[in-house]
Amino acid sequence: MKKVFITKDIPARGIEVLEEAGLKVIVHPEDTTLSEAELIDACQDVDLLLNVGQLPMQKSFLEACSHLKGIALASVGYDHIDLETATALGIPVSNTPDVLSGATADVAFLLMLAVSRKAFYRSREVVNDQWKGFGFTQELGVELNGKTLGILGLGRIGVELAKKAKGAYNMDIIYHNRNRNTEAEEVLDAKYVDFDELLAQSDVLSVHTNLSDETRHKFNKDVFEKMKSSAIFINTARGAIHHEGDLTDALRSGQIWGAGLDVTDPEPMSADSPLLQMSNVCVLPHIGSATIETRTAMAEMAATNLLAALHGEPMPQIVNSDIYK
Ligand code: DGY
Question: Is 176's pLDDT higher than 80?
Answer without folding.
Answer: yes
